[in-house]
């Protein structure tokens, strides 16, 4: 494997933590060290925050890596990978930082660079803003990973919301000898949706109001709707999730509660995403899945062709990072904010 140092500027593209996570994963997969400057330069709190620091430490732990600059708030990082080892690992973020983003950092190296199963326990936030919640991962992401040939099992031990955190997710990752390319086009006509409205440490009427608002809006759009109420331990927090029976993988959209935020706004967050997706045709995979699919498909045998409902800056940034590490033709001939395609040859 090549040992040439990859130089990266963390201020390009969307300028967030995805540049870091993709670089860590590809460094472990290719054996190439990297130097990332201006870490998360476009964020209100630039540099390594707790969840990003844990992603670095998790990658270094599974990959026997040497690291410089892995401190809270650091804007400059050097990562020199070693051999990836399977095992039982526990990573505690210590805040409500997103457990799913730590998982996204290490799942591919553990699946593709080891010959034994691994078990991860990740502690932190399971339902927090600007990151995939557990139920999205377990529903939509998991289904797409299966299509590509990955075997990953997820389990929610305890939910964790901002600002308290305290959630626990477990992941079992099987070794994978080869990823498959996929072709994903139209997802079919959507006439009905399901979902849940959950509260943890809050009155049940909050869940009822969330469900009522979502049901009313979705029925006005002409959909059949079934949203169940759930009461979870822990919290405080709430979530409203809507699942669409798209093919070949279901699409889940969600909204999250916050202090002072009306239950109706939580429902509106999820429903607005659903309606925007449906208004796109729906043209293909949801915007959140698109940028998460491009990395495993860039490592897969054979070509891939994926229609996406919306090309996002996250997707375009991820493609740019992948090109620094891999000699693979990846085209995304569309403008950000519009439907498009990912073509990997």
Structure, described:
- By secondary structure, the chain is an alpha/beta fold.
- It has 4 domains: 1-84, Translation Initiation Factor IF3; 86-177, UDP-n-acetylglucosamine1-carboxyvinyl-transferase, Chain, CATH 3.65.10; 192-279, 2-Layer Sandwich (Dihydrodipicolinate Reductase, domain 2), CATH 3.30.360.20; 287-345, Ribosomal Protein S8, Chain: A, domain 1 (2-Layer Sandwich), CATH 3.30.1370.
- The two termini are 22 Å apart.
- Helix 1 (17-30) packs parallel to helix 8 and helix 4 runs parallel beside helix 7.
- The longest helix has 17 residues, at 204-220.
- The chain has a 4-stranded mixed sheet, covered by helices on one side. A 4-stranded mixed sheet has the order 5-6-8-7, covered by helices on one side. Strands 9-14-16-15 form a 4-stranded mixed sheet, with helices on one face.
- A hairpin with a 7-residue loop joins strand 3 (66-68) and strand 4 (76-80).
- 33% of the residues lie in helices and 26% in strands.
- The mean pLDDT is 95.
- It has 8 helices and 16 strands.
- The chain has helices spanning 17-30, 50-62, 99-112, 134-148, 204-220, 263-279, 287-298, 313-325, and strands at 6-9, 34-37, 66-68, 76-80, 88-92, 118-124, 152-158, 167-173, 183-184, 192-200, 224-232, 237-244, 251-256, 304-308, 330-331, 340-344.
Write the SSE topology:
Elements: E1 6-9, H1 17-30, E2 34-37, H2 50-62, E3 66-68, E4 76-80, E5 88-92, H3 99-112, E6 118-124, H4 134-148, E7 152-158, E8 167-173, E9 183-184, E10 192-200, H5 204-220, E11 224-232, E12 237-244, E13 251-256, H6 263-279, H7 287-298, E14 304-308, H8 313-325, E15 330-331, E16 340-344
Parallel strand pairs: 1-2, 5-6, 9-14, 10-11
Antiparallel strand pairs: 2-4, 3-4, 6-8, 7-8, 10-12, 12-13, 14-16, 15-16
Helix pairs in contact: 1-2, 1-3, 1-8, 2-3, 4-7, 5-6, 7-8
């Amino acid at each position: 494997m090549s040992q040439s140092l990859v130089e990266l500027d963390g201020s390009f593209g969307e300028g967030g933590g995805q540049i870091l996570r993709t670089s860590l994963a590809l460094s472990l997969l290719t054996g190439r060290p990297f130097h990332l400057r201006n870490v998360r330069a476009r964020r209100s709190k630039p540099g390594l925050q707790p969840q990003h620091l844990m992603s670095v430490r998790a990658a270094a732990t599974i990959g026997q890596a040497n690291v410089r600059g892995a401190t809270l708030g650091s804007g400059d990082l050097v990562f020199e990978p070693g051999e990836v080892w399977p095992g039982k690992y526990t990573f505690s973020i210590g805040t409500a930082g997103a457990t799913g983003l730590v998982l996204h950092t290490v799942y591919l190296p553990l699946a593709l660079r080891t010959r034994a199963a691994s078990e991860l326990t990740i502690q932190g936030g399971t339902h927090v803003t600007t990151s995939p919640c557990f139920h999205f991962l377990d529903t939509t992401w998991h289904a797409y990973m299966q299509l590509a040939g990955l075997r990953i099992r997820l389990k929610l031990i305890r939910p964790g919301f901002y600002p308290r955190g305290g959630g626990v997710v477990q992941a079992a990752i099987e070794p994978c000898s080869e990823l498959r390319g996929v072709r994903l086009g139209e997802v079919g006509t959507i006439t009905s949706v399901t979902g849940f409205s959950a509260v943890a440490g809050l009155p049940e009427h909050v869940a009822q109001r969330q469900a009522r608002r979502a049901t009313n809006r979705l029925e006005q759009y002409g959909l059949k709707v079934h949203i169940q109420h759930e009461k979870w331990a822990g919290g405080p927090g709430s979530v409203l999730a809507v699942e669409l029976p798209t093919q070949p993988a279901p699409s889940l959209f969600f909204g999250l509660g916050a202090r002072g935020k009306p239950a109706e706004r939580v429902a509106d967050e999820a429903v607005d995403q659903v309606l925007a997706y449906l208004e796109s045709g729906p043209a293909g995979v949801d915007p959140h899945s698109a940028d998460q699919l491009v990395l495993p498909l860039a490592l897969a045998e054979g070509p891939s062709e994926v229609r996406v409902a919306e090309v996002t800056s996250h997707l375009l940034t991820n493609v740019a990072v992948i090109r620094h590490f891999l000699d693979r033709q990846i085209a995304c001939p569309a403008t950000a904010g519009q439907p498009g395609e990912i073509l990997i040859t």
